[in-house]
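Re: export button greyed out
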Amino acid sequence: MPVLKSSEATVTKVKEGVERKLIHAENLMMVVIDFTNGPWSEPEPPHSHVHEQTTYVASGEIIFFCEGEPDQRLKAGDMFCVPSNKKHTIQLLTKEVRLIDSFNPIRQEFLV
Amino acid sequence: MPVLKSSEATVTKVKEGVERKLIHAENLMMVVIDFTNGPWSEPEPPHSHVHEQTTYVASGEIIFFCEGEPDQRLKAGDMFCVPSNKKHTIQLLTKEVRLIDSFNPIRQEFLV
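Workaround output, generated via the alternate export path:
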C-alpha cells in the first residue's frame, strides 16, 4: 500500500475520542492519531514498548512525559523521541490533538 | 535528545527554498521538510535509498511518483510509503509544502 489518502483511509477507533489510521513498510510504521477527548486533567498511565518511536505534533498541545527527563510542553510543529523500552506518556492540554507517530519495528498489534 | 521544539530546533538549509530539521533514535529518524519554492513545473529526478520511508503531508499539495505505481496527487493529511531501494520523487503543486518523513534505518548523511 504505497499511498494512504485521508479521505479513503480505514480509521480504527481506539476508544471514545481516539482514532488512528496508519501506513507501513516492513520495519517502519507511521500512525496518525486523532484525539478529540481533551483536555485531560492528568496524563495517561506511562507505558513502554520495545519499538523506538518518534512523534510529530501536527495540531494541539500536550505535555510529554519520558522516564528520567523533564516534562515538556509541546505544541504543533514540535517533535519527541522515545528510546526502546523507555516509559513515557502524554497529557492533552487542548480538546483536539493530532499526533504523527512513527515506529521501528512496526507495531504488529495495530494490524489486527 | 528526547524533544525537539520547533522554536529551538537547528534548521538545515538543504538548498534555496528547502529546509529540514530532525530528531532520531538509534534506528528511526523523523525529518520535517519545509519547501517554499513551489509550485514546480516538473518533478525532481527520481532517487532511491536502502532506507524505508514513510511520509505524512502536513501542508500543501504534491504529486507522489513511485516506481511501478500510478502517480498520486496528495494533500495535507495524506501519507505515502516507500519500500527499500524503490525509485521515487515528488512534484510540488503549491508554493509551500511541509512533509514529515520517517526513515529506518536513520539517514546518517543527514547528521553531518
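Chain A is about 0% helix and 50% strand. The button fix ships in the next patch.
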